[in-house]
C-alpha cells in the first residue's frame, strides 16, 4: 500500500487490506502501566506468581482494553496517510470481541481492512475498518472489531465526484 493516498482514492479501496502493522511486544511493564492508568489491578494482569498458580493462562495476561488501545499505534504504523487530512478522530466501535488472551511477553500486530467509507458534511470522511489483532504463533486473534474513524479535511479539498 502507498505511504500516502488522496481523499479521492479512499472509496476505491473499500474491501482491501490497507495494512498489517509491525509486531509489538506486550511485556509486564506495559501491562503494569496500563493497570495503573485504569486502576484495574486484577491479579491475572499484575501478579505473575499468582496468575501462574491460580489462572488457566500460565502467567499474566494483558487487559483486553490494553490490546484494544494498541490499535491506535498499529494504525499509525501501517495505514496510508491521507494527503488532505487535517485531523483524525476516533468515532467508536460497532463490535468488539475479545477472542483469546495476550500472554505477557508475546507479540501482537494489527490487520486493517477498509470495510466502508462515506463523506459526511463538507469536511469529514467516515471510515470503517474490520480490524483484528493477531497474536504471534496463535491461531485465534486476540480481538476482532469494527472500528469507525473520522478523517477531517478542509472542505475545499473535497473530491468533486462525491
Automatic annotation (TrEMBL):
Gene3D superfamilies: Hotdog Thioesterase (3.10.129.10). It holds the Pfam family MaoC_dehydratas. Residues 13-130 form the MaoC-like domain. Signal peptide: none annotated. This is Acyl dehydratase. The lineage of its organism: Bacteria, Pseudomonadati, Pseudomonadota, Alphaproteobacteria, Hyphomicrobiales.
Amino acid at each position: 500500500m502507498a505511504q500516502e493516498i488522496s481523499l479521492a482514492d479512499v472509496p476505491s479501496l473499500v474491501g482491501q487490506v490497507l495494512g498489517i502493522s509491525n509486531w509489538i511486544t506486550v511485556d509486564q511493564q506495559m501491562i503494569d502501566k496500563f493497570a495503573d492508568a485504569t486502576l484495574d489491578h486484577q491479579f491475572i494482569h499484575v501478579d505473575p506468581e499468582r496468575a501462574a498458580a491460580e489462572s488457566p493462562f500460565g502467567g499474566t495476561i494483558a487487559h483486553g482494553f490494553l490490546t484494544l488501545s494498541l490499535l491506535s499505534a498499529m494504525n499509525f504504523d501501517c495505514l496510508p496517510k491521507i494527503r488532505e487530512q487535517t485531523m483524525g478522530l476516533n468515532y467508536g466501535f460497532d463490535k468488539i470481541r475479545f477472542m483469546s488472551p495476550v500472554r505477557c511477553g508475546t507479540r501482537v500486530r494489527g490487520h486493517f481492512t477498509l470495510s466502508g467509507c462515506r463523506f459526511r458534511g463538507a469536511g469529514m470522511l467516515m471510515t470503517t475498518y474490520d480490524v483484528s489483532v493477531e497474536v504471534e504463533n496463535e491461531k485465534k486473534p486476540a480481538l476482532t472489531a469494527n472500528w469507525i474513524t473520522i478523517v477531517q479535511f478542509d472542505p475545499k479539498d473535497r473530491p468533486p465526484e462525491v
